[in-house]
Amino acid sequence: MNLQVGVKVLLKNDEGEYLLLRRSQALGRGEEQIWDIPGGRIVADEPLANALTREVLEETGLMLQLHPQLIGAQDIFVESKNLHVVRLTYIGSAEGQIQLSDEHDNSEWMTKEQILAQETLDPYIRKLGDLF
Predict the structure, then answer these.
(1) Where are the beta strands (DSSP E) in the chain?
(2) For 95-107, what is each residue's pLDDT tens digit?
């Protein structure tokens, strides 16, 4: 089984809302458009903090502020791909203007209640609902 490490972040604004990104259909997976948070896989020899900063910048155009707080670690097993992903999720803040990459086609700032009410929410975010 292949092992990968992913980092994600719930970016929180001054109003207490979190940035959600809707995955683009351009990814070509044929799945529903899922609401997700910024993040992705680390590359070899890349520190976690650097990977998180890079992914936020690539996906949103925002600059992650220092010291995001780790709130959860999850195992994701994808048997069909012989894959085990260890996903680390943080809470943090960022500055700048949102400029989405091709991976996402919409962004919205949402309250925790609005996030958890989304039918097409990434299931691993839902599992962290008590932690943010």
Answers:
(1) 2-11, 18-23, 35-36, 39-41, 63-64, 69-78, 83-92, 94-95, 104-110
(2) 999 999 999 999 9
Looking up residue 92, the CATH number of its domain turns out to be 3.90.79.10
Q: Check whether 71 has a pLDDT greater than 90.
A: yes
Pair 93, 36: CB distance under 8 Å: no
Confidence of residue 32 (pLDDT cuts 50, 70, 90): confident
Are the CB atoms for 102 and 24 separated by under 8 Å? yes
In a domain, 131, yes or no: no
Query: CA-CA distance, 49 to 70, in Å (whole number)?
Result: 11
8 Å CB contact between 39 and 131: no
Tokens of 9: 């972040």
Task: State the total domains in the chain.
Answer: 1
The boundaries of the domain holding residue 62 are 2-126
Summarize pLDDT for 8-19 with one digit per residue, the tens: 999 999 999 999
- Sheet bearing 18-23, strands edge to edge: 35-36, 18-23, 104-110
CA distance 32 to 84: 22
